[in-house]
Specification:
This protein has about 120 residues and is α+β, with helices and mostly antiparallel strands. It is built from 5 helices and 6 strands, in the order H-E-H-E-E-E-H-E-E-H-H. Strands 1-2-4-3 form a 4-stranded mixed β-sheet, with helices on both faces. Helix 1 runs parallel beside helix 2. It is globular, with a radius of gyration of 16 Å. The N and C termini lie far apart (about 45 Å). About 10% of the residues are buried.
Length: about 120
């Protein structure tokens, strides 16, 4: 993989991190957010192609191209490998009034050791 990416790029690191995860086989779609990982740091198309899975990239902004993007609530969505309808259904399932359930799952996972030690 080192020949495909610039050495030490954030895109390469993210792809490796996801591939090395023990949950990689369970991942069906990757949801990325500009607030956490700015698009200027990532090549989202390359992530989609290398992981061979759909990617949803959420961002704010005023640059919108309806040929490649869609809107969801007040966010611009760049879907890779998904239809607009599917993206809407996925985001409706995992996002709740600004607090996404993936963040909640991450917080729970980080603190499982504390719960088991009580």
């Amino acid at each position: 993989m080192s020949g495909v990416f610039p050495s030490g790029s954030i895109t390469e690191g993210l792809i490796q991190l996801i591939r090395e995860s023990k949950h990689y086989g369970q991942v069906r779609v990757l949801v990325l957010d500009e607030e956490s990982l700015p698009g200027s740091w990532l090549d989202v198309q390359l992530i989609h192609e290398n992981l061979e899975m759909p990617v949803i990239y959420l961002r704010y902004g005023d640059v919108f191209d309806p040929r490649f993007m869609t809107m969801w609530r007040s966010r611009i969505v760049e879907p890779y490998g998904l239809t607009e309808a599917t993206v809407g259904r996925i985001l409706d399932l995992v996002m709740d009034e600004g607090r996404d359930l993936l963040q909640v799952a991450h917080l729970i996972a980080e603190n499982l050791a504390l719960v088991h030690n009580v």
